[in-house]
UniProtKB/TrEMBL annotation:
Belongs to the ROK (NagC/XylR) family. PROSITE patterns: ROK. Pfam families: ROK. InterPro entries: ATPase_NBD, ROK, ROK_cs. It comes from the Bacteria. It comes from Fervidobacterium nodosum (strain ATCC 35602 / DSM 5306 / Rt17-B1). This is ROK family protein.
Length: 313
């Protein structure tokens, strides 16, 4: 059985043909989104890309992971800052008409947790919290095998739980959100803020000041690097402990570019969360790094079609 996943971004979209049994991406390609040319033009390019990678192969449908507020029941993008003008845009219906196949649309962070459930570290689990640490912090929750989306379908904004009430301002307008403390954007901001006080930090010997250079510096014992990583670990540990108390997951999967830091991030988080959770929650969960890495977007999108096709009647 084959499905198609589309990882839709504001600059590029990726399309993959996925074997639903093995989770292998058999064919994939990337195209410019060209949002400025209008929604109909984007739909046309997406349809052409799907037809190209599925030539000669029968597939059951298309799943799309899209940023923004998504009405997943109707396949509508209600609003997305990445797509100016896409207000109540019927993404799923329009692409379905072009392809004559079922098309399901989901918020990209929700698609991430579905990808973990179907193809990643969450396979075999019915209670999953997933966090993706990239430009922002996204999250999704599965409980009893079902995706939690809330009353209007826009719930589980895990990146916008407030960790430090008087902390740095987040892109959402609030202060001290998890996203403002643990995203790649936040890590870079903290490094640049520390430059005056720590001009000799090895962070600034890198060509690019980014999350990777901060973690590399911390591994070398650099003072600024260690201070930033400590703050990131603290924020993530508080957030994850709260999610454990609220959702009682079996597994917490952390992915996205920042997760590639590996042990320097995960080992202290596991230790700190162990101290933060109530005694009754100790031993009920595990915290793991996502194995999907570069393929998370396509596999997450592909899992959207699987989740809908296999939904209880």
């Amino acid at each position: 059985m084959y499905v198609v996943g589309i990882d839709l971004g504001g600059t590029f979209f990726k399309v993959g043909l996925v074997d639903a049994e093995s989770g292998k991406i058999l064919r994939k390609l990337e195209r410019e989104t060209k949002v400025n040319e209008g929604g109909d033009s984007v739909i046309q390019r997406m349809a052409e890309a799907v037809e190209e990678i599925t030539e000669g192969i029968e597939y059951i449908g298309v799943g799309i992971g899209s940023p923004g507020s998504i009405d997943h029941d109707k396949g509508i993008v209600r609003f997305s800052p990445n797509f100016p003008g896409w207000v109540n845009f019927e993404l799923g219906g329009l692409l379905s008409n072009k392809l004559n196949k079922p098309v399901f649309v989901e918020n990209d962070a929700n698609a991430f947790v579905l990808g973990e459930k179907w193809f990643g570290a969450g396979k075999g689990y019915n209670h999953i919290v997933a966090l993706t640490l990239g430009t922002g912090v996204g999250g999704g929750v599965i409980s009893h095998g079902m995706l939690i989306t809330g009353h209007n379908g826009i719930g589980t904004e895990l990146g916008h739980v407030i960790i430090e009430p008087n902390g740095p301002q987040c892109g959402c307008g609030n202060y001290g959100c998890l996203e403002a403390l643990a995203s790649a954007t936040a890590i870079r901001r903290m490094a640049l803020e520390g430059q005056k006080k720590f001009p000799e930090s090895v962070i600034f010997q890198s060509e690019n000041v980014d999350a990777k250079s901060v973690f590399e510096a911390a591994k070398m014992g650099d003072g600024l690097g260690k201070a930033i990583v400590d703050r990131v670990v603290n924020a993530l540990s508080i957030g994850i402990a709260n999610f454990i108390h609220i959702f009682n997951p079996e597994i917490i999967v952390v992915g996205g570019g920042v997760s590639r830091a590996g042990d320097i991030l995960f080992e202290p988080i596991r230790e700190k969360v162990q101290h933060l959770v109530m005694p009754s929650f100790k031993g009920t969960y595990k915290i793991v790094q996502s194995p999907l890495v570069e393929e998370a977007g396509i596999l997450g999108a592909a899992s959207v079609i699987l989740q809908n096709v296999n939904k209880p009647k």
